[in-house]
Amino acid sequence: MSLMRYHGRGRQQTGLVPDRFLSEEACEALLERVVSLCPSGWEVSLYIYSRWNGNLRWARNEITTAGDITEPRISITAQHRGRSGSFTINRLDERSIERAIEAIKLRMAMLAPSDQPGRMRAAETYLETHLWSDATYNLDAAKRAELQQKLVAPAVAEGLLSAGYLSVSAIGNGVVNTSGLFAYLPETRAEYSVTVRNATGTGSGWAGVSNKDWREIDPERLLAIAIDKCKRSANPVAIEPGRYTVILEPQAVADLMMPLIYSLDRQTAEMGMGPWADRPEEAARAALIVGDTSAFESAQGMGGEGGGGGTGNSKIGQLVLDPRITISADPSDPEAPFVPFAGDGSPIRAVKWIENGVLRELSYWRHYAVQRLNKPDPLINSYSFRMSGGNTSIEQMIAQTERGLLVTRLTNVRVVDRNSLLCTGTTSDGLWLIERGRITKAVKNFRFRESPIFAFNSLEALGEPVRVLAYPPVIVPPALVHDFSMTSLADAV
Q: Within a domain: residue 121?
């Protein structure tokens, strides 16, 4: 078996612990082992996600859980005479592999042969990227515990309660098959999140971020932010629900934008469903959307979890957001890199989903690419993204706001209407009233009801994009948005 290899720049790692995750050599040996146990003539592909995670959690300033976890996850796919089957295992002993092969045999036996059987991908060229950090990999349990004690101390000194987590991971990502494909890329992830509350539970502050490199995370600075927010949010007062001008900090922007990113699907749109289906009759009712959400929801074919129906083309090429907004993804982005191949070996390429407010692309998988679009490769959504920004600081946004709200983040976000991407959720961990260009008081949290599409068509200003707490990586700016719907007071702190 001749294998053309791709391994990005991830082989720069040093001092690896062999048992933490599967190495490049182990992936090749595993393929040979699986093939040896399969019936003759089978084409075989392995998608390998082998993870080590070191985690530490604490609450009320005390460590609650800590440990290291190793998790191999191997998806075996086989093809033979127009039939295919897959099975996923998390144990690599011979008996587990044999059982997986037997399960694949049964699945293939239940299928009729395909007239157009898909072929496994041969050798591919992927975008060059670097996802590894020795600093993350070497942050062992003792170092994590020592760091946590150091980080809790400032909260203890102020009589505050700290809770959060520190997580580091190393992952061996691989796709290998009998057609000559060998893609392997190790990556590291570091995440830090901290919430600080006062003893009476009336004030809460949060901060967090993720990065491949632990050295790029400043936990002391993040803790200081959380402590400051906790103090300033103490004893909030209730104000009336309604539509407000809001300043969304970067994490809140990411929280609101994720449903939009997950909705970027071409097949759904061309079936006449979702926010990107071209429905002219609904565009005629756009005024209802801006002025009256209830009127929008009652419009024919728009309400409900399932969305509308029928057929139609997508909104590709149409202006869908404010022209200042560009949303892109690039595996080789040095600030937000991600694995440049999918589980079947398909390349994940750089893409601009939305450019200057215009919808440019929607994702589609390989079968749809071949059958409907006459294209050889899919356009895969990694769910990582970078959103363009501006040069307005949060302080400047506050100064230019007559009356509005400063929002730390949005939690429990869920979509209640898939066609409009209308979402609900709550503000959390710090909400303040702005009056005449300055913050005047902490206020109680709201339940909101808003769509990222409507919100980012009501844009007044953007700030500098920054990395937030998310995997795959997300880079977004703070945003000043008008007419954001706060529907009722929430119990969240």
A: yes
